[in-house]
Each structure stands twice: as structure tokens, then as C-alpha cells.
Amino acid sequence: MNVKTTLKALCLLTATASIPMVTNAQFEKGDNVLGVGIGVLGGYNVGLSGSGVTQSPAFSLHFDHAMGELGPGTWGLGGYVGFKTTSYKYDYIYYNYDRRYTFLVFGARGTWHYNSWHTDKLDTYAGVLLAFKSVSVKDNTDYGAYPNNYSYSGSGFGPGAFIGARYYFSDNIGAYAELGYGITVIQLGLTVKF
């Protein structure tokens, strides 16, 4: 390498280093983010329709706290809660079917946010979730001479993974989308940073 090439390289390096980089990450140590969303597609009978079927939206709430830097990003810890109900009511010739399901998912989640985008509006992340899943059933089916009125429930723990993105319209308010484990496969909603 000759002197002229070395000087050009040093000039280029100095010029590049002096250019201000717009890398204001949207998730930095100490930040808290709260997201409220509605689930769409898949999981817990979402999208099921027909005569006698009613269901609530799949609501979700998540919280992330930025713990510190990790590589080219920031890692966080937080929690997740999801809720949904589905009811089935059918009138048959000999009995009236009436059953209601309530689904609840809550757990702890860890996230890693990639902070090297050259914009302060985009926050992309991936994470893992350890969740407690519960379903309870209330059965009020009327079999004529044998009316039914009982409840039962089941629960268990399960791991999961997800990816997501937040886009901020202002310094603190934005929208988010997540794909992965939760009350549904896709969750869309609003997010607030404080």
C-alpha cells in the first residue's frame, strides 16, 4: 500500500467518522414500553364463525423494560397477558347446547431489540416467552330431563418465541405488530413508551 492510498483511506475514514449517524434507538436502557393489542388469526378459536358462535376479541397486554446493551442492541424483560372467550349455543331437537370457553395466557418474556437502524421511529425485536396457559369451560347444556350445569378447567406451562416491530408516530406513541406465541399468532395494537 503506497502513501497516497493510505492518505486517501485515512481521509475517507475521518470523513465517515465525522458524519453524524442517526441511531437514536427507540429502546434504550431504562425505557419502559406498554403495548395493548388485539389478536388476529389462529389460536383459541379466533376466526371461528357460524350460527350460535359468539366470541370476544383476543385482547393482549405486554410490558417491556430495557435492561441494558447487548451487542448491537438492547435486551429487556417484561410480561404478557392475553384473554379471550368463545361461546357456542345451538338448539337441537332434543336438547339445547350451551357452552362457554375462557382462555387466559400470562407469563414472563425476554426481548432483544436491534438498535442499529438509521431511524428513531422503528424498533424491531425478537423474544422468548414462558407462559402459563389456562382454559376454563362452563357448560349449561339443557338435555331436557337431564339439565347440565358444571365447570371444568385445564392449565399448563409452555415456552414460545416471537418477533415484532414498533413504529413510533411521536416520541412516545406508536403502533406495533407481533408474530408468534401469544393469545393468537398475530397481534396488532398501540404502544406507549414512558
Highlighted features:
about 190 residues; eight-stranded antiparallel beta barrel; two-stranded antiparallel ribbon
Topology of helices and strands:
Blueprint lengths: L2 H16 L13 E9 L12 E3 L2 E13 L2 E19 L4 E19 L7 E18 L2 E2 L2 E2 L2 E19 L4 E8 L5 E8 L1
Antiparallel strand pairs: 1-3, 1-11, 2-4, 3-4, 4-5, 5-6, 6-9, 7-8, 9-10, 10-11
Give the tally of β-strands: 11
**Strand order, sheet with most strands:** 1-3-4-5-6-9-10-11
Distance N to C terminus: 52 Å
Which parts are unreliable, with pLDDT below 50 for 5 consecutive residues or more?
Answer: 5-24
The main pleated sheet reads as: 8 strands, antiparallel, barrel
Oligomer: single chain
Q: What class would the helix/strand composition place it in? A: mainly beta
Relative strand content: over 45%
Sketch the topology as an H/E string, one letter per element.
HEEEEEEEEEEE
- Tally of individual helices: 1
Please describe what this structure looks like.
The structure is a single chain. The chain is mainly beta. The protein is built from 1 helix and 11 strands; from the N terminus they run αβββββββββββ. The protein has one helix at residues 3-18, and strands at residues 32-40, 53-55, 58-70, 73-91, 96-114, 122-139, 142-143, 146-147, 150-168, 173-180, 186-193. The strands form 2 sheets. Strands 1-3-4-5-6-9-10-11 form an 8-stranded antiparallel β-barrel. It has a two-stranded antiparallel ribbon with strand order 7-8. The protein starts with a helix and ends with a strand. 23% of the residues are buried. The model is unreliable at 5-24 (pLDDT under 50).
